[in-house]
Amino acid sequence: MNSVLDLLAENVRGLARGFVAQLPYIAVATAVFVAFLVAARLLRRLVRRTLRRQDVAIVGMVSQLVHVAVVVLGVFVALWIAIPTVEFAQIFTSLGVSGIVLGFALRDIIENFVAGILILWRRPFRVGDQIRSGAFEGNVAEINFRSTVLRTYDGIKVFIPNGKVFTEPVENLTANDTRRSLVVLGIDQDSSVAEAREVILEAIPEVDGVLPDPPPAVLFAEIGDFANILHVHYWTAPPTRFAELTTRSLVTERMYEALIAAGISFPYPIQTLQLDPDTGLGAAQAPLASTRPP
Known about the structure:
Alpha-Beta Plaits
């Protein structure tokens, strides 16, 4: 029993002596790693200043890439100083063997990284653009290695993986200066469609934000069950989504007031209930056109 304890104590003393002997190397390695961290930050700032006239997303991604590369290099240099007996050739060889396994494990990360590079290269949108991707819509706040960051109109940040953004359809709402809007309304079937069209086309140009060219258009889209359906198209140049919605609200309000003033009403659906004299039970008919009572 005593021999085992003596052997254990000797091993502990040997480890302690080895650690003490390595302390100068560890101290130098720590100082070198800190120097690489400082150099990585300085290089990141230098890259940002050098590329300040480029796209914001490109500047951010390149500066991050330089920072990560310098830090990784610092780790290897510090390990080489702290543990001189490390064979880096063997490490790289083992990494080559296990690279396939790591590739499968990090497939999503690599896919998002490559997709981010391709997005910055092809530039379907830029930071500040308004886009719609799937169920999300908002302003592009950032494009990084992993995701495209959207700030929705409600002020919520949404992180969409770059792989999904690159492979699925994306609508760039600010790619063009102008945008066409649509308002759908139904008028009473006893009213004249031609008269309603004339009233609407006279009222819309008075709304701030509606462009005269291309001119507004009113299309007779459908004969509904209880109303004639009109599609009102007009063009705007909205700087933001809220501006577009504001213009739509003003257009709808102006059309409503103009149509009411012209005596054109808006129906609402009703059902007529007929009683069977034999059974006393009622049967509902299809909706009929009806105007609002004065």
